[in-house]
Amino acid sequence: MLILGIVAVVVVFWLISAYNGLIALRNQTANALKQIDVQLKRRHDLIPNLISSVQAAMDFEKDTLQAVISARNSAIQASAGFDPQHVKQVAAAETQLTGALGRFMAVVEAYPDLKATSNMKSLQEELASTENKVGFARQLYNDTATQYNTKQQQFPTNLVAGMANATPAELWEIEDAAERAVPKVEFRRGA
Asked: Is the bond preceding 183 in cis, omega lying within 30 degrees of 0?
């Protein structure tokens, strides 16, 4: 009888531990996702400043500016109510914004006077810093979500996953082939 009591206590403690572990990982995944959200908001808030600083100088590049504004607005809409079940939609919208910003920055490079202004340099540095932070936040989210998903699938914790309402978290993936492409680097010899 004593042995059955000890086994029952051990099983109860294990159930509580497994349940709490899944809840902790779910919360860490949600937190990591919110860190992406914070960095994306920073990125979204930076874009209007970037555009207003170059708008007068790039008056005839309205299509490029409009593409960035449109992609930003789509990304903001996609990230409203950002949760682990809608990662793919937000990732797709952010990929479009990244592409539009890349084209925008390529156009800026064609304007040496604009590129040389301290305001533009500052905004470019801020955007580059923000892009790095977004990348690190995505990596943290994917690492945490993978850990959470793995824990849900492992035996015997998978027996408790239903009680904890644990559902797999989507990973943040790059779906744009252009973003996946390896950049071509050429070294030219001086003449």
From this structure: no
pTM here is 0.71
Res 127: pLDDT: 84
pLDDT tens across 2-26, in order?
899 999 999 999 999 999 999 999 9
> What is the SS3 assignment for 81-94?
CCCHHHHHHHHHHH
46, 173, 43, 54: which is closest to 110 by C-alpha?
54
**Architecture, CATH, for domain 14-172:** Up-down Bundle (1.20)
Picking from 183, 149, 188, 144, the residue whose alpha carbon sits closest to that of residue 30 is 144
Q: Which amino acid is at 154?
A: Q
